[in-house]
Specification:
Elements: H1 2-31, H2 47-62, H3 66-79, H4 84-97, H5 100-110, H6 121-134, H7 138-151, H8 156-168
Helix pairs in contact: 2-3, 3-4, 4-5, 5-6, 6-7, 6-8, 7-8
Length: 174
């Protein structure tokens, strides 16, 4: 029982840390929109329009229109592939929908805009690791997961992905 309580406490801490980090990164993303020359996705979403699409997506989500919300977040990501809030929420939406392929692919679709010099890259790697694990790409998931944890030690998606891989490959001692 004590071990279960400790696990629950560490999971709650990791979740609250991730929420705080996502919120902080979202604030940075909203404050600093990339200049037109930095956009690589080819989308046609104007800077003010992205915020409106976020609001529309959240409205759709809260009213049970999951597919519409996901389409709106994907539209934002076409224009602003570094919009960490749109990426995180789309990733989460695909997770709740049970769509492991898009859970993985939403990160791959914006990967061209991210590298280790971009703040929040470790969180993106963590999401990527989880998507890879959910699509049974265990070797790639371990590599991305370990890299993400190295960048951000309390990265819940990366830790979760690595733990899943060890569980699925019957390597619990790792």
């Amino acid at each position: 029982a004590a071990a279960l309580a400790a696990l629950a406490a560490s999971t709650a801490l990791a979740a609250s840390t991730a929420l705080a980090a996502s919120t902080a990164l979202a604030a940075v993303a909203v404050r600093r929109r990339p200049r037109h020359s930095e956009r690589r996705g080819g989308g046609r979403v104007a800077a003010g329009m992205a915020e409106r699409l976020h609001a529309d997506a959240m409205n759709a989500w809260t009213n049970g229109f999951t597919n519409q919300a996901l389409e709106l977040w994907e539209d934002i990501l076409l224009a602003y592939p570094r919009d960490i809030l749109a990426l995180r929420l789309a990733h989460h939406g695909y997770f709740y929908r049970g769509d492991s392929q898009n859970l993985r692919d939403v990160v791959f679709r914006v990967q061209h805009a991210w590298d280790d010099q971009v703040p929040g890259y470790g969180y993106v790697e963590g999401m990527q690791a989880f998507g890879l694990e959910e699509t049974h790409s265990y070797v790639q998931a371990i590599v991305k997961g370990h890299s993400a944890v190295k960048r951000i030690p309390k990265n819940p998606w990366a830790i979760h992905a690595v733990a899943h891989v060890y569980e699925m490959t019957e390597s619990p001692k790792e």
